[in-house]
Amino acid sequence: MPDLLLCLRRILGVLERSVALPSMGSCYRCHRPWEIVNNNDRRWGVEPHSTPYLSVEDGDDCSRSCFPLCQWCWSHLAVEKRIPYYRELYALWEENERKYGFSTGTTWEQIKEAVINEQERIH
Ligand SMILES: [Zn+2]
After folding, report:
1. Quick one: 103 exposed, middle or buried, by C-beta within 10 A (0-12, 13-18, 19+)?
2. Do residues 31 and 13 lie in contact, with contact meaning Cβ atoms separated by under 8 Å?
3. What is the pLDDT confidence band of residue 85, given thresholds at 50, 70 and 90?
4. What is the rounded CA–CA span in Å between residue 115 and residue 123?
5. In angstroms, what is the span from residue 30 Cα to ligand 1's centroid?
6. Quick check: pTM over 0.90?
7. Which residues pair with 106 in a beta bridge?
8. What are the C-alpha distances in Å from 111 to residues 42, 86, 116?
9. Looking at residue 59, what DSSP letter applies?
10. What is the pLDDT of residues 86-95, one digit of tens each?
């Protein structure tokens, strides 16, 4: 059975993205745009879930974070179900590195480890 709440969030995401800036990022699962505050100080969109990770360039300092999922989607997925969304984000980074030479400064293994470690810190 499809997840009804997820379907509703995706419909909302289509509506929200139609009025969001084209450059706005969105959750890789429900596709709702990241939270912004509009001119009337009203918030809309979703809060991203930031996952801190180690990078090759920063050594042991977990100063970077990535967020393919919103807080709601992240909390509704088991760790192994989250990993494909992080992989999708990492694939985009790899593509940008190939196309534009932007270094990700990290490996896929470091991202995957961060996703798993984050789960372990919670439990
Ligand atoms: Zn989401």
Report:
1. exposed
2. yes
3. very high
4. 13
5. 4
6. no
7. none
8. 33, 7, 9
9. T
10. 999 999 999 9
Q: How confident is the model at residue 21 (pLDDT cuts 50, 70, 90)?
A: confident
96 CA → ligand 1 middle, Å: 23
Question: What's the CA-to-centroid distance between 13 and ligand 1, angstroms?
Answer: 9
- Take residue 61 and report the two structure tokens written for it: 């300092």
CA distances from 88 to 4, 7, 28 (A): 24, 20, 8
Confidence band for 55, pLDDT divided at 50, 70 and 90: confident
DSSP 8-state symbol, 21 = -
CA 75 / ligand 1 centre spacing (Å): 10
Q: Which domain holds residue 32?
A: 4-122
* Side chain identity at residue 52, one-letter code: P
Domain count, the chain: 1
d(CA 75, CA 23): 26
pLDDT at residue 24 in the model: 82
Amino acid at position 39, single letter: N
